[in-house]
Amino acid sequence: MLYYRNVAAAIPLFFFFFFIFLSSWGLTCYMRRIALRHSLLDIPNLRSSHSQPTPRGGGLAILLACYLGGAYLLFAGKIAISHIVALGGCGLGIAIIGLLDDLFHLTATRRIIVHFGCALLALNFLPYGSNTLVHLGNGSFSAVMLVLLAVGVVWFINLYNFMDGIDGLAGAEAVSVALGAGFLLYYSGEMGSYFILLLLLGASVLGFLMLNWPPAKIFMGDACSGFLGFFFGTIALFTAQATRMTLWAWFILLGVFVVDSTVTLITRVCQGEKFYEAHRSHTYQILARRLHSHKKVTLAVLAVNVLWLLPCAFISISWPSYGLLCTIVSYMPLVLASVMVGAGTINE
What we know:
Elements: H1 2-37, E1 41-42, E2 54-55, H2 59-75, H3 81-104, H4 108-123, H5 143-162, H6 169-187, H7 193-212, H8 222-242, H9 247-253, H10 255-270, H11 283-291, H12 294-318, H13 323-341
Helix pairs in contact: 1-2, 1-7, 2-3, 2-7, 2-8, 3-4, 3-8, 4-5, 5-8, 5-10, 6-7, 6-12, 9-12, 9-13, 10-13, 11-12, 12-13
């Protein structure tokens, strides 16, 4: 009887997420028409990985679908208001600064200040869980640790922006990581707010991905790529604090983006290059040029996420004491691949 009750409870949620998927798809189509009508196009340049002018700003559809779904879930009592404020409210600040950057090309300093402020504000809602991730023995949070964690969230915001450079990649990564993390929470017996929020994000991005899949009919834009990085960086800390999900599992699931962006950044800094300037020397960008295909690279990343990183993350959840070892093992082939391809050094 319990099984049938669980199935019956899941059916309304299934239709809800299907509605969010359709809403995101419809909103993306609408945003594409608006972008074409007002010539909001991403024009190719020497640093671009695309060759045709393409509408941009499609990530706004993801945001609208997410906030629409979040409002309903809050009204229905499915998620906590603290999660809406931390992820939705602070995430909105990230999205707005990204949109302004898309329109007016803000300086890196202004973006970082807003990113850091939003991250610090969101972390003030970090739950006091039994995992004692960042709080002291007396129950209060360490200010130094909060600042360090905020720096980590800011890094996730920017690395996701760095990795949004070819058709379908950022969207496919978001869907696979959100659903993968949702599966691990389900496996751990955690089907509360975090589980639902991850499915909400996955459904919202999947609708957009229908038009962003190679060859892309519309691009995401900084407004949404930054939001996705903020979402994953923040919810990783929340779940590590309050559930059996660990930071090691999150690092593993996001391994492709973490390794590619980090190896590329370190290489460029060591070469004395201006790391904050746009370039085309990420592993995925080099491979897309060599293979003459965005689709092959995006499919390869999906395959790595599902067939390699998700099993490694599953093992790290099943045997938490081996979390660091699982992360190292999962990263080794990714680091090797980035080095062999020439990440950070090839920018033709």
